[in-house]
Design goal:
The chain is mostly helical. It folds into 2 domains: 183 residues, no CATH class; 151 residues, no CATH class. Helix content is 40%, strand content 3%. It has 15 helices and 4 strands. Strands 1-2 form a two-stranded antiparallel ribbon. It has a two-stranded antiparallel ribbon with strand order 3-4. A hairpin with an 8-residue loop joins strand 1 and strand 2. Helix 7 packs parallel to helix 9 and helix 10 packs across helix 13. It is globular, with a radius of gyration of 20 Å. The two termini are 34 Å apart.
Amino acid sequence: MQANIDVVRSRWPWSGRVGDPRAWVLDSDEPAARWALLTGVYGLPAADERVLAARREMRNDPATSALVGQLHDWEGGQPFSGHNSPAFAPNLLNLLADMGLQRGDDPRVDVTLERMLAHQDEEGRFQSFAAVRGGDEPVWGALLCDSHAIIEVLVRFGYHGDPRVRAGLACMGRDLTSTSQGLAWPCRRDPVTGFRGPGRKGDFCPQVTLEALRTFALLPESERPQELLDVARVSLSAWRARGEQKPYMFGHGRTFKIGKWPATWYSALTVLDALGRYPALWRGNAEPEDRRALIELAACLIAYSMNGEGQVVPQSTFRGFAEHSFGQKSQPSPFATARALTVLHRLDDLAEEASGVDVMGLASSKGGTGHPVAPPGVGRGARR
């Protein structure tokens, strides 16, 4: 696809920090990146011929088939190694959905989704097959980081109307509770295994809270819990309080700022991906501290993951994705760039203010600052 189509002529709001990489993404040989940009940044409808062409190429791309081939048997054949791992089927399915894959595109995906639907506890939480601790025999259990992740992909792949998914969503709403940080989702004890998860009792879990916020944002407002904005503010409070309080296993230092690809776990990108779906956090009568936190996070996302041209350069990657641009360290990735641009696009209102943030002056949860991809004075996106 040639970049000189009308969609790239719109103003690039983030030019105060980086150059405009949109034409570069559209000229890339990655159909998933083009699809993500056309739909996520330009908002072109599914019926647009450019979107259709990109999705058709994505479906026929051997790289897409290779990703689908990494799906493990959900019927207990192979337990996964961790909820942050791309081998966890919901994470892999979320990645494929980000690339434009849909229900009906590949029978291997459809089989996995149907098998996920078949494992649900009596209260409505979806289960996965895993060992509670190293050396234990795997069992079917439903931690919230199982159920939330599964519900999210089921909704994304078109199962919102399925009674089992609706029961899962209702249970997700009931699991919302008061935590030490405020209204959010905690680590919840699984009644089958007795395992509660690694977080401190009473604390909110940043990961499952983001998963729930993303999931409910996919639904009509009438089907969402009324308190979601309060929950989103709790997520932002973890960033604001990073110097005094660190959620167990969820820091806000350099690793958080640069993220890890594919983006399956808690990072600046995934926080903004979830919270950017709730514009009341920064528009209208929004709390100034919430708006400021989003501005800082956006500035960090750009400074720590993009080069001066606005291209995302993966610095940390999971193994097993070397054939994909987002699995290549130190090289710009069209797909990772398209994903980051989608997240930033929701926050276009904040671009001008983000350009003035001194990211080197923002302390991390460990008291350090880290170093952005492009140091001050380097590239078109140098701080001014």
